[in-house]
Write a structure and sequence with these properties.
With 134 residues, the protein is α/β, with parallel strands linked by helices. The chain has a single domain, classed as Response regulator (Rossmann fold, 3-Layer(aba) Sandwich). Helix 3 links the parallel strand 3 and strand 4. The longest helix is centred in the first third of the chain and has 13 residues. It is globular and about 35 Å long. The two termini are 26 Å apart.
Length: 134
């Protein structure tokens, strides 16, 4: 099955690396370098809602938590699975992520791209209720 995935990260190298991994697996990928770019895409009238949004937390301008706050407040991408993909792995980060009802949390330093791909597909295909898995 092909999924639409949005990748949000200010690290162009990692963004390209993950984009190639997802595209090579047959998925439709859009990349964004900031929270602002993601929100602009989600607010477009003809926007196609992604199956999953993988978002970094630390970015210049609007970071991941700022983007998540806006997504939830404005009821954007309601049917999308939201996955934090960050090197921030403190318990306080997991706690804050739970407040935004994210569907997954992947620490970049602990997962190779193929694992990120597999976990993303697993989350998309799972019918379980929202909650952070760590």
């Amino acid at each position: 099955m092909t999924y639409r995935v949005y990748l949000v990260d200010d690290d162009k190298f990692l963004l390209d690396l993950y984009a190639v991994k997802f595209k090579n697996a047959g998925h439709d990928v859009s990349v964004f370098g900031s929270g602002e770019e993601l929100l602009a895409a989600l607010q477009k009238g003809d926007a196609k809602i992604p199956d999953a949004i993988l978002i970094d937390l630390i970015m210049p301008g609007m970071g991941g938590f700022g983007a998540l706050e806006s997504i939830r407040k404005n009821h954007l991408a309601q049917d999308s699975k939201i996955i934090i993909l960050s090197n921030q792995g403190q318990s306080s980060d997991f706690g804050k992520a739970k407040q935004f009802a994210v569907d997954g949390y992947i620490v970049k330093a602990s997962a190779i791209p193929s694992e990120v791909l597999a976990e993303t597909v697993r989350i998309i295909e799972s019918a379980s209720s929202k909650g952070v898995s760590s």
